[in-house]
Design goal:
Strand content: under 5%
Shape: elongated
Distance between the termini: 11 Å
Order of helices and strands: HHHHHHHH
Radius of gyration: 21 Å
Number of strands: 0
Largest sheet: none
């Protein structure tokens, strides 16, 4: 069977139908596994994986959320940043550590549904953050704002970049399987 672009496939579906109907049918066929979408220009190496938003947007959103959280905490004496600190701080503590661990443990999107990822992310964050606090309690720094921020930042970023490496390896495996066919 000849490989065609997604645009060509949708154009064939358009005959006698509206664009929304053709796109809806195409999406439905993709979800059911009747058609397979293949990236014509997959990343060649890890750096190109990180620089391609189609693959790594999730990573840069997590990193930027961590960075914005740190900025909002450092500028919390300004009223606007005080409320932003509450929102971003809650996400930073209650979601990001668990989300980065879930992405590391389950790098393939199809392994878990989005709702399962969300629930496990929150649950694992609620388990990881107290463990970080427990570990900090036995250090000379103790449980204060700066050590907690630093350790959660390093934990989240380390797990996030480990997850991106695992996802990159999965992309490489997928490319190798596709090229063997």
């Amino acid at each position: 069977m000849r490989k065609i672009t997604l645009e060509e496939y949708v154009r064939r579906k358009l005959k006698g139908k509206g664009l929304d109907k053709a796109l809806s049918e195409t999406y439905s066929e993709w979800v059911k596994g009747k058609i397979k979408l293949i990236d014509p220009n997959p990343p060649r190496d890890y750096v190109s994986y990180l620089s391609n938003p189609a693959y790594s947007l999730w990573l840069w959103l997590m990193v930027s959320t961590v960075f914005l959280t740190l900025v909002s905490i450092s500028l919390s004496n300004i009223v606007l940043f005080k409320y932003l600190r509450y929102v971003l701080g809650s996400i930073f503590v209650l979601y990001l550590p668990g989300a980065s661990l879930i992405e590391t443990l389950y790098p393939v999107e199809e392994e878990l549904s989005p709702l399962e990822r969300l629930a496990l992310s929150i649950g694992l964050s609620l388990a990881l953050v107290p463990l970080v606090g427990l570990a900090l309690n036995f250090t000379p720094w103790g449980i204060r704002l700066t050590p907690v921020l630093t350790s959660l930042t390093f934990l989240t970023l380390a797990l996030t970049f480990l997850a991106s490496w695992r996802k990159y390896l999965e992309v490489k495996k997928s490319i190798a399987r596709t090229s063997q066919r």
